Amino acid sequence: MLLSTEKVQLKAIHQISHSLLHQRDVSSLLGEVLDILQNEMKLKRATLTLKREECLVIEASKGLSKNEMKRGRYMIGEGITGKVAQTGKSKVIPDISSDPGFLDRTKARKSGRCAFICVPIAFKGEIIGTLSIDHPSAGKAHLYRMLGFLETIANILADAVATFREEQNEKLLLEQENLRLRRELGNRFKPGNIVGNCGAMQSVYGMIAQVADSTATVLIRGESGTGKELVAKAIHYASLRKDAPFVAVNCAALPENLIESELFGHEKGSFTGASSQRKGRFELANGGTLFLDEIGDVSLPVQVRLLRILQERKFERVGGTEPVSVNVRVIAATSRDLEKFIEGRKFREDLFYRLNVFPIHLPALRERKSDIVTLMDHFLEKYNKTHNRSIKRISTPAINMMTSYHWPGNVRELESCIERAVLMSTNNVISAYDLPPSLQTAQATGTVLGSDRSDADFTTMVRSFEREMIVQALKNSRGNVAAAARSLGTTKRIIHYKISNLNIKPEIYKS
Ligand SMILES: Nc1ncnc2c1ncn2[C@@H]1O[C@H](COP(=O)(O)OP(=O)(O)OP(=O)(O)O)[C@@H](O)[C@H]1O
Ligand SMILES: [Mg+2]
Known about the structure:
49% of the residues lie in helices and 16% in strands. The chain has helices spanning 4-22, 26-40, 66-71, 79-87, 140-188, 199-212, 228-237, 256-264, 281-284, 300-312, 338-343, 349-355, 372-386, 396-404, 410-424, 437-445, 454-476, 481-487, 492-501; strands at residues 45-52, 55-62, 73-75, 91-93, 114-123, 126-136, 218-221, 246-250, 265-266, 278-279, 289-293, 314-316, 323-325, 329-334, 358-361, 393-394, 429-430. Helix 1 packs antiparallel against helix 2 (26-40), helix 5 (140-188) packs across helix 6 and helix 13 crosses helix 15. Residues 444-457 have low confidence and may be disordered. Bound molecules: adenosine-5'-triphosphate and magnesium ion. Residues 228-229, 293 line the site of magnesium ion (MG).
C-alpha cells in the first residue's frame, strides 16, 4: 500500500509527464507544472527562477503577484535560492520565520510557520535555475521526502527549462538588437528636410534608409498632413533612382473618367479628344519612382489595372493593344482605413497585399508632442525667409497654446499656423493672439492633448515591421519557414517564435 503522500506525488508526476508530452509552448508548460504542484500538493507557493548572467530572476510562479515576482532577484550565493544555485545542493528550511538565511525578497510571507524547500535545476552540468516551494510546516522526515520529490521534478523539467532559457535569451538579444539598429539607422539617415526626433520618427528614418535602395513597393500611412509625401520623396532621393523622375499622382484629385488615361496614357483616337498618343504617368516615371497618393480613393476597375501592373510591370495604353513594359518603383500613400475599405469591398485585398510590402506609419502630431517646438522653430525660420521677416521668438503663452492643441491637421496645420503668425506679428515676437482662432477656442474649451504615446507606437511599428519582413520572406519562400529564416539571416527557431507571437500563418503562403 502506498502512503497518501506518495500517492499524491505519483499523481502529480503523472500529470506533469502528461503536460510535458502535450504542451508545446514551454512557457505555458512551466506554468502548468507549477499549477500542478500547487494544487496537488496544496502548497502556498511554487517558484521557478532562471539564471541570467550573475543573477537569479523569478521566471514563473504560483502564489506570487507580479510585483512580488519582480522583487525576487538574487545574486548567485545570496539567500537560500542563491546558495542552492551556487552550490548545486538542495536545501530544506523547516521554519523560515526563524532562519536568518531566508531573505523573503518578494515580501510575500506575512506571518506564521512555514517551511521552504529549494532544489537546483541542472542542465549538462550547469546550474540554470532553481525550483522552490513554500510548504506547510511539517516533520523533518516528511520535508526531506518532499525534497526528493522536488528533485525528481527538477530533473524531469531540466530540458524544457533549458530550452525556455535559450528562447528568452534569444528574444532579449533580438529585441535589443532591433532597437539598436533602428536607432542607429534613424540617427545616421535622417533626411535633412524632415524635422522630428521622437522615437516613432527615428523609426521612420530607419525604415526610409532600409527600404530606399530596394525596389520594394512602399505603403505610407498616416493622417492627413503628417508628411507622407515628404517621406515618399525622401525615399526616392535616398535611392539609386534619385536622378530619374519622381512622378506624383493624386488619385483622389483626378476625375474617374480621366484617371486611366492619366496613369496609363492613351493611343491616338482612343476616345473623343484623344487627338494624339499620350504617355501616362507610369511611362513618365520609367526608371524612377511613381508616387500614388491617396491610393485608397481609386475605383475598383482602376485597382484591377494597378494590380496587374504591380504583378507584371506591364500594361496597355487606353485604346492600345501593345503591352508597354516599365521599370517603376511604386510608393503609395493613404490616410484611409484600408482594412475597413477591404471589409466594405471598396478596396481589393489582393492589391492591398501587393502595396503593403513595406508599410511605413507616420505618427499623428498629437502623438509626438515632443517634436512640436522643433517644428515651430523650423517653420519660423522658413517663413522668416519667405516673407523677409526677422521674428526672433515665440512667446511662452503661444508655445503653451501650440503644445497643448490637438492638431487635427497635423504638421500641415502647424506649418500654416506659423506662416499666418509670421504675417500677423507686428513686433518681432509671435504672441498668443497671432495664432488662429481654432487654437484659442481649443484652449478655452480644454480640447488638449492626451499623454505622449510615442513609445507604444514605436513598439507597434517594430512589430508591424517585423511582421511584414517575415510575411514577405514567407511569400518568397512559398511558406517554407526554414528558407524564410535563411533569407532573413536568422534561425528557424526565432522565426517560429516570431510566427506564433505575431500570429502569422505560414501555410497561407504555400500557393
Ligand atoms: N516631419 C516634418 N518635417 C518638416 N515638415 C513637415 C514634416 N511633416 C510634414 N511636413 C510639412 O507639412 C506639409 C504636409 O506634408 P505632406 O504633404 O507630406 O503631408 P501628407 O501626409 O501627404 O498629407 P495629406 O494626406 O493631406 O496629403 C508639407 O508642407 C510638409 O513639408
Ligand atoms: Mg499628401
